[in-house]
Design a protein that fits this description.
The mean pLDDT is about 95. With about 240 residues, the chain is of the alpha/beta class. β1, α2 (about 35-40) and β2 form a beta-alpha-beta unit. The chain has 2 domains: about 10-105 and about 160-230, Glutaconate Coenzyme A-transferase; about 125-160, no CATH class. It is built from 6 helices and 11 strands. The longest helix is centred in the middle third of the chain and has 13 residues, at about 110-120. The radius of gyration is 18 Å and the shape is globular. Strands 1, 2, 3, 4, 8, 9, 10 and 11 form an 8-stranded mixed sheet that branches. It has a 3-stranded antiparallel sheet with strand order 5-7-6. It holds the Pfam family CoA_trans. This is CoA transferase subunit A.
């Protein structure tokens, strides 16, 4: 069996300048912080980052460091962020005003479905969200034109799949093959992103031997996971 276990530094070693990465979690909850820290240490630049939000800046809720994607923004590593909720991190607005950061807002449900479409090999998804608004005429986050389709008398926007070079995901428990589960709020985007990238890195609180845990413990199959990092800190809200 291929050994998928690596250190955080080894796991992110393939991420290069200009790549597109997905990051699981919601405002830091469910984000693989050990992978983010290793990526900041590596110092790559000009990333396109896909996530629910921009993480949290230092000082939020008394935090001594930024959380999640906020660490990448703080380090000036991001050129383009594709997200749904960015109001909690003023670095995004500052970057947009300064012209150093591009931000593409995608409705949260649409963002999840675009990622899921890439994960499951779908050609796209149809949604009524945005019909009758300027979204019909706008290009999407990858500069692809939108299409409006009418089905049984109702109009829908065709949203294309959204895929990345790397997906950084977080688990509460996994086995050494990569079968994993996320507890409580840490589920956010981790399940849907695993499989929607060319390379999937999973940081887990706990790693067990194959067969040690009941198979029903796990939600996502390890076949979509390329690399496993053990020792992710306990999640916080």
């Amino acid at each position: 069996m291929i050994n998928k276990i690596k250190t955080a530094d080894e796991a992110v070693s393939g991420i290069k300048d200009g790549m597109t990465i997905m990051v699981g979690g919601f405002l830091g909850t469910g984000t693989p912080e050990c992978l983010i820290d290793a990526l900041v240490k590596k110092g790559v630049k000009h990333l396109t980052v896909i996530g629910n939000d921009g993480g949290l800046p230092v000082g939020t809720y008394g935090a001594k460091t930024a959380r999640g994607i906020g660490k990448l923004l703080e380090a000036g590593m991001v050129d383009h962020i594709i997200a749904s909720h960015v109001g909690m991190n003023p670095l995004i607005g500052d970057g947009m005003v300064a012209g150093t950061l591009k931000c593409t807002l995608v409705p949260q449900g649409t963002l999840a479905e675009k990622i899921r479409a890439a994960n499951y090999g779908l050609g796209g998804v149809l949604t009524p969200t945005g019909v009758g608004t300027p979204m019909e005429e706008e290009l999407d986050e990858l500069d692809r034109p939108k299409k409006v389709l009418e089905i049984e008398g109702r109009k829908y926007l065709l949203e294309m799949p959204l895929r990345a070079d790397y997906a950084l995901c977080r688990a509460s428990i996994c086995d050494k093959f990569g079968n994993f589960r996320c507890d409580k709020a840490t589920k956010n985007f981790n399940y849907v992103m695993a499989g929607a990238a060319d390379h999937v890195i999973l940081a887990s609180e706990k790693v067990v031997e194959i067969g040690e845990a009941d198979p029903d413990t796990f939600v996502v199959a390890g076949v979509v996971v390329d690399t496993i990092v053990e020792g992710e800190p306990k999640w916080q809200i």
